[in-house]
Write a structure and sequence with these properties.
alpha/beta; Rossmann fold; 10 helices; single chain; 271 residues
Length: 271
């Protein structure tokens, strides 16, 4: 059994890289603007990147396999499927380039997937430039995730929240009311998955404490490269953490999504 999770802040190098970005090699295919600023599509070899402003990449699509989870944080978020392999309804806050939406539809083409995205421009670019799969079960709503969560009454089995703008993670993901609304939207055995930006700030510690309290301590954390921290919280029964008991399921999931997950599975720790 792994030791209890210890909170290690991102290194200064990670924080600088995420805050300042890096000059992306490749060529710019498209640039457009809305009230929140620029959205750019950069192509480098077989990959296309979605960027907000001129910072780091928000999303990546492999043009030859748009359902392949390229970034490690997306792979870590998909670990939730180990604990609920057959969800009927999934909600995704934040579309980005559409990589996670593509992964989920490829995993189960019959899945009912609702995506809530703030920016019409991001939806249009995902459709036109980033191979967004618009299967029959996909429902995209252009809306503010915080407002949607506050007023919606539709239950969902897994709720993925991946809310970032050009300056980094949207602070609402740490808000007590937002987390409470996410909890309310989950089905009785539902799972909340948060992509957090681990800046080592006190507010992050406070949000994680609120998450632990709200979900009665049934929370797992998975730190990944680049300073992201994936939180997986369970509304129902406590999660299995022993990697040996999950290895068979992890191998099956790895085959379905196209990337090995064993290393990330070993990084999961109770919080």
């Amino acid at each position: 059994m792994p030791a209890p999770f210890e909170y290690f802040p991102a290194t200064e190098n990670d924080q600088s890289k995420r805050a300042l970005g890096r000059t992306k090699p490749g060529r710019e295919l498209h640039r457009a603007y809305d009230e929140w600023g620029p959205v750019r599509v950069i192509e480098e070899g077989p990959r296309r990147y979605l960027t907000f402003g001129y910072g780091g990449e928000q999303s990546c699509i492999h043009c030859e396999n748009p359902a392949l989870p390229v970034f490690e944080y997306v792979q870590a978020m998909l670990l939730a499927l180990l604990y609920m392999p057959a969800p009927r309804h999934v909600t995704l806050f934040g579309l980005g380039g559409g990589n996670l939406a593509n992964c989920l539809q490829a995993y189960d083409p019959s899945l009912n997937l609702r995506v809530v995205e703030l920016r019409t421009l991001v939806v249009d670019i995902a459709r036109d430039w980033l191979y967004l799969d618009e299967g029959p079960g996909l429902d995209i709503q252009v809306d503010d995730a915080e407002c949607y969560a506050a007023r919606s009454s539709e239950h969902t089995d897994i709720l993925f929240s991946d809310l970032f703008l050009d300056e980094g993670m949207q602070a609402m993901q740490l808000d007590r009311d937002f987390l409470g609304d996410c909890y309310r939207l989950l089905s009785p055995e539902g799972i909340l998955v948060l992509n957090l930006w681990d800046e080592g700030l006190p507010r992050n510690r406070q949000a994680l404490s609120r998450l632990k309290e709200l979900f009665d301590g049934h929370c797992l954390l998975c730190p990944v490269n680049g300073g992201n921290l994936i939180a997986i919280a369970f509304k129902g029964r406590p999660p299995v953490i022993n990697p040996r008991r999950l290895q068979q399921h992890a191998r099956q999931l790895s085959r379905k999504i196209g990337v090995p997950l064993q290393r990330l599975l070993n990084q999961l720790q109770h919080y």
